[in-house]
Amino acid sequence: MTRFTRLALAVSAFSLLTAAPAAAQDACLGTAEALHLSDAQLADVIDRNLTFGFLTNNISDDFSRTLVAGGEAYAEEIGVELIVNNADFDANTQLSQFDALLQRQVDGIFLTAVDASSIGQAVNRANRDGVPVFIVGGAPARGEVIAVMNASSYQGSFDAGAVMMDAIGEANAQVAILGIPFALQTIRDREKGILDAVGAAGGQVISMQSDFSQDRLLELATNVIQANPDLKGIFATWSLAVNAATEAVEQSGRDIVIAGYDSEVPGYVELAGGDTNIVALSGQQASVQGRAAIEGLVQSILGAELCEEIITPNLLVTADNFEDSWSVQYPGAEQPW
Amino acid sequence: MNQSVAKLLRDVMPYLGLVLLVGYFSFSSEFFFNARNFERLATDSATLMLVAFGMTLVILIGEIDLSVSAVVGLLSVVLAQMMVAGLAWPIAMVLVIVLSVAIGTMNGVITVYGQIPSFIVTLGMLAIATGLAFVFTGSVSVAILQYDFLDLFYSDQIFGLPIPLIIVTLAFLTCVGLLNRTRFGRELFAVGANMEAARLSGVPVKQRKVTVFAIMGLLVGVGAVLSAARLGNGAPGSSPTLTLDAIAAVIIGGASLFGGWASVVRTLLGALLIAVLNNGMVLLNVNIDAQYIVKGVIILFAVVLERLASGARS
Q1: Which residue of B has its CA nearest to A141?
Q2: Are A315 and A329 in contact, with CB atoms under 8 Å apart?
Q3: Which domains does chain B have, with CATH numbers?
Q4: ipTM of the predicted structure?
Q5: ∠B237-B242-B244 over CA atoms, to 5°?
Q6: What distance in Å separates the CA atoms of residue A287 and residue A91, rounded to the nearest whole number?
Q7: Across the interface, do B139 and A85 touch by the CB < 8 Å criterion?
């Protein structure tokens, strides 16, 4: 073998080694759009009589309801039976529901986990049964999922936070965060997003409160407003916190700017009303995610490879674009204002 | 409804309800009546059953423990963190159970010697345990990566039986024996029925009550270990409905919320009824909103029967 041949072989081998992962990454399906099914695939789906489990961590907020509705509508459209269950923020309940779905011999399971690290044991069992699992929020510590679907939590939170800080327009502005005590990476990302946005604008976070219920969040927000006469802004990291912050600020009569993560009906109604303290809401496309959940499972069953993470972009909903955003976020739904 | 009929119904209901439910789900779903489903049912509801056994004793003496869900969350967090710190799981497990007995004993001591209603004491403990679990973890669950522990208490079997099922069976037999075959058990019935009469009869009422809370702590501790193994982590707030489900199991089993009458056997049936109901409704794809209504109706029905039957008893 000549020196030239050895060199050529070495270069080829190196090229193959470096190109392979990139090619694999290119080949995987990594966006909600890429998951769309072709006509041939749709015809195949109908013949298979598929049944999927669809587990939500709760059903009390608009995001979860819209996610479920998006999934149900698309499943019905393509002839997939959907078994929907709600865990009410109880990881043990979700695990039991997951087990029951495996017992029911479903063809795939999609879930918004109460706690991604709690579901590993069950995912392990699903792997043994050959049932694909598609998850929102974060990968479990044990077992393999076909993909993790995430909204752009950090960026969405940062962008809405930046609008809030801009609207406040003061150095050292005091800001409070109202959130949810939820052990999910996506929630931590939202918190990091707003902390970075406040930090970048030279503001200071003086309070971080969280709860699962809107009543309690309202109480927390009211107390924070009462205790901090110089409070200029509240950032809410999820839908019920947005509602609670809005109500608390209205009740206080103070000029406190609100931004948040999750743009749902109450937020849209506020923006449409005109006289609101909300300046920006970062909207997940729950309906798109619901459809993508079904499509992702179908794609996996049909042999396609999904990328490890599938990101669905957020909308930045403001008083200037809420009508357009509504039609994107809730396609076909009647405007509630 | 005639009171004696109500009493008969209350006595029969846990058995009848379970038989009817199992029969209905067996005929309605091809996936229900098989060994694998029953194995999962037993494993999934092990923590509920252990806690429900403890709750039976607590309710029997006319008290209540509302701290269970939060304490299970706290214990699972402590267990996971000790394992993450490198402690061998058997030692971590024993320490957690000891901690749980201490918490239960504290509930009992404050209730009895402080003469504060257990409702208030355990509500306070609920808040403390919830807060501590969140403080210890920063609201993020702690993964348990000692897989021998996870497998042992979740998927491993002895003589073809899942280990959680064996633990539940042992706890069940112990509680039944304790209540029905010992002086201690008879004294608990006496304390629950009429505390003053029991005291005048020489029953050490305060010690008995504290002991019951300590036993509750022991069962909660073991339940927390099983819950952590099942979830694969220590998570604050992982079982928010556990307390209410345990109370519901005791009530469906026909116990009197005012004390003096309870049965571990019937509590087991009540817990099984809840577990079978939850499992069957998923298998049958019952609408998620309707699931709440079904569970609520069954619990209400049980409570009404208990009230009517209490009239018959008195």
Answers
A1: B143
A2: yes
A3: 33-275 (1.10.3470)
A4: 0.79
A5: 120
A6: 24
A7: no
Name the residue among B32, B134, B154 with its Cβ closest to that of A181: B134
Question: By CA distance, what is A57's nearest residue in B?
Answer: B238
Please say whether the beta carbons of A35 and A310 come within 8 A.
yes
Candidates A117, A185, A187, partner chain B, best to mutate (most B CBs within 10 A):
A117
User: Nearest-CA distance from A43 to chain B in Å?
Assistant: 25
Distance from CA of A53 to the nearest CA of B (A): 9
Give the pairing type, strands A51-56 and A108-112: parallel
Distance from first CA to last CA of chain A, Å, rounded?
Answer: 77
Q: What pLDDT digit, counting tens, does each position of A135-176 carry? A: 987 788 789 999 999 888 899 999 999 999 999 999 899 999
Kindly state the helix (H) or strand (E) to which residue A179 belongs, with its residue range. strand A174-179
Residues linked to residue A312 through DSSP beta bridges, in sequence order: A151
Q: Are B42 and B98 in contact (CB under 8 A)?
A: no
- Please count the other Cβ atoms lying within 10 Å of the Cβ belonging to residue B253: 27
A212 to chain B nearest CA, in Å? Answer: 11
The CA angle A135-A137-A139, to the nearest 5 degrees, is 65
Cα distances (angstroms) measured from residue A169 to each of A83, B153, B177, B217: 49, 56, 71, 54
Neighbouring-strand partners of residue A178: A209, A236
Rg of chain A over Cα atoms, rounded to whole angstroms, equals 22
- How many residues in chain B? 314
What residue ranges define each of the domains in chain A, with the CATH number in brackets?
28-151+286-313 (3.40.50.2300), 153-283 (3.40.50.2300)
Beta carbons of A95 and B37 less than 8 Å apart = no
Nearest CA in chain A to B42: A96
CA distance B198 to B79: 39
Residue A220: how many CA atoms within 13 Å on its side-chain side? 24
Residues of A in contact with B134 (CB under 8 A): 181
pTM: 0.79
Inter-chain touch A141–B236, beta carbons under 8 Å: no
**Distance from the A1 Cα atom to the nearest Cα atom in chain B, whole angstroms:** 51
**What residues pair up with A210 in beta bridges, in sequence order?**
A179
CA atoms within 13 A on the CB side of A280: 20
Question: How far is the CA of A130 from the CAs of A105, A302, B62, B277, B283, in angstroms?
Answer: 10, 13, 50, 27, 19
Written as six digits, the tokens of B187 are: 């004294």
Query: B244-262: per-residue pLDDT in tens?
Result: 899 999 988 888 888 898 9
